[in-house]
Every structure is written in C-alpha cells, then in structure tokens.
Amino acid sequence: MNQLLLLLGVDLAIMTSPLSATPWGIPGGAIVNEIDGKPSICVPEQARESVAVHSISVSESQLHKGERLTMWQVELEPEVTPALLRPGDCITYGEKLPGYKQLVSARFLQVAVDYYARINLVVANPTRQSIIFYDAVFCVGQKIGGGLHYHQYKYERDGKVVKPACGDDFGGVSPH
Fold first, then answer.
1. Does residue 109 have a pLDDT over 70?
2. pTM score, two decimals?
3. pLDDT value of position 40
4. Which of helix, strand or coil describes residue 51?
5. Is 87 helix (H, G, I), strand (E, B) or coil?
6. Which of 20, 97, 128, 171 has its CA 20 to 30 A from that of 12?
7. Gap between the Cα atoms of 119 and 75, Å rounded
8. Which runs of E-coded beta strand occur in the chain?
9. Could you give the angle at the alpha carbon of 87 between the alpha carbons of 37 and 81, nearest 5°?
10. What is the pLDDT of residue 18?
11. Is there a contact between 34 and 140 (Cβ–Cβ < 8 Å)?
C-alpha cells in the first residue's frame, strides 16, 4: 500500500510539474523593412546577439483549404555553416543565400494580402528563454504614384493587434 501511495505521489508531481508543460524557447518579433522595393525580414536592433539562420519562409497569413500558401522558403543545406545575422541585419525577400536550398522560389506578393514571415534559428542548447525564431505579419500596400509598400502589424502590450491599411480600405491605394 505504501508503494502504491508513493507511486501515485510521484506520478502526480510529474504531471503537475511546470517542466512537463513548458516548451523550450520563445518567439522573437522580427522587423519588416523595405530594401530596393522588396520586403526584408530583420532581426531587431535590440537583439542581444547575432543569430544563426536555419530557414526562412514567407506564406500567406490566411488559410486556403486548411493550408497556407508558401510564397518563399529557403533552408540550410546539411553540413553547411549557417548565415549569421547581427542585430539590425535583414534578409530581403527572394534573396539567394549561399549554402541554402530554395524550397519555394519567391512568388509575386499581392496588394491587400496579409503575409507571415519567419526566420527559424539554429539554437544549439535551447533554454526556456532562448529565442528560437523571429516572426512578423505584414501586408502589401500600393504607393500613390506607383510601387509597393510593406506594412507590419503591430502588437500592443495588452494583446491588441493594430492592423495597417494595405490597399483594400483605400480603393487599392495606401495613404502612406
């Protein structure tokens, strides 16, 4: 009987332990900028250190038949040293990176469509506080006079999302 109670106590302790329910690593907020008329996904300047890139993807934010349409995706080749991004460094949409295999070639980004961008990192020994990827949501807007602009969604501390105007609210033309 004592062994049964001990076994139940150990099982209960394991099942309620925060260690068993907490994932390793956390996301970081990427920054979306524009370089030479194309969107770029950047490591924030406030990042503590350089990061090693495992893969990068951009997909439509909305689901289509249960899946997101991948617009661009690259992944580090085996046995290759990953690219390092310092705080503030960016990778431009569609950029060809040495040592990375292009899984999906860059497709045309459409005005008034929301996109999800993600940089997955190589993290050798992750802890609960390790940033394991940087991500951002953005949409494409039409500039007055031609060209495109890339507007990033903003997330407030209280959890509210500030969605930018990206063309559909202004007859296909963003006021920015």
1. yes
2. 0.77
3. 96
4. strand
5. coil
6. 128
7. 10
8. 26-29, 31-35, 38-42, 51-60, 70-76, 84-85, 90-92, 100-104, 114-121, 131-142, 148-152, 154-155, 161-162
9. 90
10. 44
11. no
Between CA 71 and CA 116 the distance in angstroms is: 10
Closest CA to 97 of 144, 133, 52, 148: 52
* Residue 172 pLDDT > 50: no
Q: Which residues contact 171 (CB under 8 A, 6 or more apart)?
A: none
Residues 3-23 pLDDT 10s: 544 444 434 344 444 444 445
Alpha helices of the chain — where are they, by DSSP H?
2-16, 18-21
Asked if residue 53 lies in contact with residue 91, where contact means CB atoms within 8 angstroms, the answer is yes
The conformation of residue 64, written as its DSSP 8-state character, comes to: B
Residue linked to tokens 């139940």: 8
CB atoms within 10 A of CB 35: 13
Rounded Cα distance between 128 and 120, Å, is 16
> pLDDT digit string (tens) for 119-163?
999 887 767 667 788 999 999 998 888 888 899 998 877 877 778
Q: Per-residue pLDDT tens for 41-77?
A: 999 999 988 999 999 999 998 877 888 899 999 999 9
Measured CA to CA, the distance from residue 161 to residue 58 in angstroms comes to 20
10 Å Cβ neighbour count for 144?
12
